[in-house]
From TrEMBL:
The lineage of its organism: Bacteria, Pseudomonadati, Bacteroidota, Cytophagia, Cytophagales. This is Uncharacterized protein. It comes from Spirosoma telluris. It comes from the Bacteria.
Length: 99
């Protein structure tokens, strides 16, 4: 038992060699959703699927941010297009930098 205690004490007191850290490239700064919409769809309506193709965010995060822009910030409006039976989105006049 004494031998095991001594071995554990020696192991606990030894320092571990430092691991070689691999330098990884920094992540690209992700554009805010409003900026993505302003750059990609400045004067046209778009669907949620079109927006998903232009964003790297997950479905739920993207949905929550988009509806935040609609309900809270009033930067985006949404409407149902009966001819295509799809929900479309469009920038409001005060959120559109080209107006």
């Amino acid at each position: 038992m004494d031998r095991i205690r001594i071995e554990r004490a020696v192991i606990a007191n030894t320092t571990k060699p430092e691991k070689n850290k691999i330098k990884r490239p920094k992540k690209m700064v992700e554009l805010k959703l409003l900026e993505v919409i302003q750059q990609t769809f400045p004067d046209q309506s778009f669907t949620f699927d079109q927006l998903r193709q232009k964003s790297t965010k997950g479905y739920e995060v993207l949905r929550d941010e988009l509806y935040g822009l609609i309900e809270t910030d009033k930067k985006v409006i949404h409407q149902f297009d009966p001819s295509t039976e799809t929900l479309t989105f469009r920038l409001t006049a005060d959120a559109n930098p080209t107006n």
